[in-house]
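Ops channel
N.P.: pipeline sanity check, posting one input/output pair.
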């Protein structure tokens, strides 16, 4: 997770706790030892893991070896900004949530506030959130779901971010519900 506070993770944990979502989180992984998401996972009794290696290839191997020990149906990226390597891509279904209506405002460097500032500057009428499958390129995988958010003339990057995050959490939990229903 990238300096986020792990609120997306928290919304999944809460949905599972309230039985809105029939799923379980096996493991929460971060490439930042101080990511607050790791603390949220620990508080919820979920195992955590911090990535030790540096390059895409090393991380790919490291995570493949780590994940082998779990029964994993789906990997959800939330604020994880590195490209995913081949072993993981070929083994798991991986989805990512992105804070814009892709293909607009996607690609390298387009994350967090960068996205919302760009949307405001472009005077877009709508922004939103996109849930997509992960492939070899940033933000290029097939789109699963999109939720539109109206950009008001008074919106700043901060207010837009708050609206998009709210929509993101709802959309992600809904998509996970659908995923768990088709799984059975």
């Amino acid at each position: 997770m990238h300096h986020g506070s792990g609120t997306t993770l928290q919304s999944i944990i809460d949905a599972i706790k309230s039985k809105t979502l029939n799923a379980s989180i096996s493991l929460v992984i971060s490439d930042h030892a101080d990511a607050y998401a790791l603390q949220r996972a620990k508080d919820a009794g979920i195992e955590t893991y911090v990535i030790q290696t540096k390059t895409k290839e090393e991380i790919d191997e490291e995570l493949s070896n780590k994940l082998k020990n779990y029964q994993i149906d789906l990997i959800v990226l939330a604020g994880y900004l590195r490209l995913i390597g081949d072993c993981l891509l070929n083994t798991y279904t991986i989805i990512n949530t992105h804070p814009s209506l892709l293909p607009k405002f996607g690609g390298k460097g387009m994350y967090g506030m960068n996205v919302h500032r760009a949307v405001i500057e472009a005077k877009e009428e709508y922004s939103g959130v996109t849930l997509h499958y992960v492939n070899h390129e940033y933000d290029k995988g097939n789109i699963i779901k999109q939720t539109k958010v109206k950009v008001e003339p008074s919106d700043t990057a901060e207010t837009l971010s708050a609206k998009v995050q709210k929509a993101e959490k709802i959309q992600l939990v809904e998509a996970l519900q659908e995923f768990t229903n088709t799984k059975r």
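N.P.: looks fine end to end. The chain has one domain: 7-183.
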